[in-house]
Amino acid sequence: MTKHTALHAEHEKLGASFTDFGGWDMPLRYDRELAEHHAVREAAGLFDLSHMGEVWVTGDDAATYLNTALVGNLAIMKVGKAKYSLLCNEAGGIIDDLIIYRVSETRFLVVPNAGNAEVVADVLAERAAGFAVEVRDASSETSLIAVQGPASEAIVSAVTDESQHQAVRDLAYYAWTSIEIGGVDIMLARTGYTGEDGFELFLPNERAAKIWQLLLDAGSSHGLIPCGLAARDSLRLEAGMPLYGNELGLDTTPFEAGLGGVVSFKKSEDFIGRAALEVVKAEGSAQVLVGLSGAGRRAGRSGYAVHAVAADGTPGEQIGQITSGLPSPTLGHPVALARIDAAFAEIGTAVAVDLRGKPEPFEVVSLPFYQRQS
């Protein structure tokens, strides 16, 4: 059965078009996805992310346990900070990418992707055996709302008491704090998936509609509009951020996905997948994730083949395929993420993308494609 977030009725009122995403009926767009994309780049967008998971890890062994279950070093995190990490299997394949928040010395919040939330909760519970920890899946009772864009700080401040404005301003990137909005206790994080400044608000389902409306009302004078998954995807691609199921998966190691830096071999814990990943690091990956920029107007899409280019400019052997691609609304030309043979991954390398039988010139470029100025 398709699941609904606590804000589904609010999206219906706003005339959203819906799509299935990880078993959830989610807003794809409200009006024009290009307008939603540009609103986030120029002003602000409001997103319902309540399909994401929330798994609490609590106990004296919480830090040590997470260092065993995940590839990153979570034990060195300070209270009030967040960290991006990966949950891998024994072969080093990525089960999911996650954001972890340290709430206290013995309490962490793990946020998995929507389609993987139940799997992640089950794997974390399984790996907790022998540790003094409790793993509790709170996904079904928690809503998550994001405000993304240059005006996001002003909008969040507008719905908080003046005594909390400094806390909002001082909140660092990849950190969180507790605030109150409209009498509702909120866990406010400064993270995001768009390449812009932004905030994510964790709160109980029963208060979600109230906070959603308060943000819409406060943001109207700042240019804020509600945004769906279509704009979220184009924004994250411009920012060079991976999507599970496209760039990441069980058949992909962190090194193939350009996330080798997330893996900590310095920590003492023998984390799941460590032995396999040590081999990959030592031997190198046959394929790696790169950014591609097109000179024309036609965009490559997920699954399209990428070919080497011969000295005379003609397409040669297939060297990989696109994982995500579209015409960049901000940059005005096609961009794509692609997994290709490592030998062709040098910046500036010319490649050809097979666009339904017609080769289109692309070039390997550095990531991200788009980066905000401040």
TrEMBL record:
Catalytic activity, as annotated: N(6)-[(R)-S(8)-aminomethyldihydrolipoyl]-L-lysyl-[protein] + (6S)-5,6,7,8-tetrahydrofolate = N(6)-[(R)-dihydrolipoyl]-L-lysyl-[protein] + (6R)-5,10-methylene-5,6,7,8-tetrahydrofolate + NH4(+)
Keyword Methyltransferase: yes
Alphabetical UniProt keywords: Aminotransferase, Methyltransferase, Transferase
Pfam families attached to this UniProt entry: GCV_T, GCV_T_C
GO function term, MF aspect, one: methyltransferase activity
SUPFAM superfamilies for the chain: Aminomethyltransferase beta-barrel domain, Folate-binding domain
Keyword Isomerase carried by entry: no
Domain Aminomethyltransferase C-terminal as annotated: residue spans: 289-370
GO BP, sorted A to Z: glycine decarboxylation via glycine cleavage system; methylation
Free-text function comment from the UniProt entry: The glycine cleavage system catalyzes the degradation of glycine.
Family: Belongs to the GcvT family.
Quaternary organization: The glycine cleavage system is composed of four proteins: P, T, L and H.
Name of this chain's protein: Aminomethyltransferase
Organism the protein comes from: Leucobacter denitrificans
Organism lineage: Bacteria, Bacillati, Actinomycetota, Actinomycetes, Micrococcales
Gene: gcvT
